[in-house]
Design goal:
- By secondary structure, this protein is mainly alpha-helical.
- Helix content is about 80%, strand content about 5%.
- Strands 1-2 form a two-stranded antiparallel ribbon.
- Strand 1 and strand 2 form a beta hairpin.
- Helix 3 runs antiparallel to helix 4 and helix 5 runs antiparallel to helix 6.
- The chain is globular, with a radius of gyration of 18 Å.
- The termini are far apart.
- The model has no long low-confidence stretch (mean pLDDT about 90).
């Protein structure tokens, strides 16, 4: 049996995860809620960053508590439980990297605030599509099913776009 490529394995285990999908949707929701017409990219950036870090810490804590003790028929110590929770939660934290980078472009006035906010939101749609495609590819789905997976996953981001259009 061949060893998996370390880069591919990192992407699969840290980024192409349910936590990453959840994180992108969380980030998109925070952009929708905090990205009013009067908001600056700087304000939205900090709202998103603080919220994601708090959710990530809560996710690691909850995973540690949930798996500490008896887990799948074996006893896990607190350190092993923490390491396991930490390893499984990186996608949630990483999901904020691209949108926050785009929001920083607005915060530094490299692009206007509304452009940065909308670009960060649309980036969530693209990232969700890529994650959906990757998930179906990993399971050996045919290319039409991969497209269905990408579009259906990206649909969550499109719901956020529609929500922003309605709310603001």
């Amino acid at each position: 049996m061949t060893q998996p490529d370390p880069k591919t394995e990192l992407i699969r285990t840290a980024f192409a995860t349910e936590q990453a999908v959840y994180g992108v949707i969380l980030v998109s929701g925070m952009i929708v809620v905090s990205g009013t017409a009067e908001s600056t990219s700087w304000t939205v950036f900090w709202t998103v960053l603080v919220t994601v870090v708090v959710f990530w810490l809560a996710h690691v804590y909850a995973g540690t508590v949930a798996h500490h003790g008896l887990d799948h028929g074996r006893v896990l110590g607190i350190r092993e439980s923490f390491r396991q929770a930490l390893a499984q939660s990186w996608g949630l934290l990483a999901s904020a990297l691209i949108p926050c980078t785009i929001l920083l472009l607005g915060a530094t006035k490299a692009v206007p605030d509304p452009v940065a906010i909308w670009a960060a939101l649309w980036t969530g749609v693209v990232v969700l599509g890529v994650l959906g495609y990757a998930a179906f590819l990993r399971r050996g789905a045919s290319w039409p099913m991969r497209i269905v997976g990408a579009v259906s996953t990206a649909g969550f981001g499109m719901v956020m776009i529609a929500l922003k259009s309605i709310i603001h």
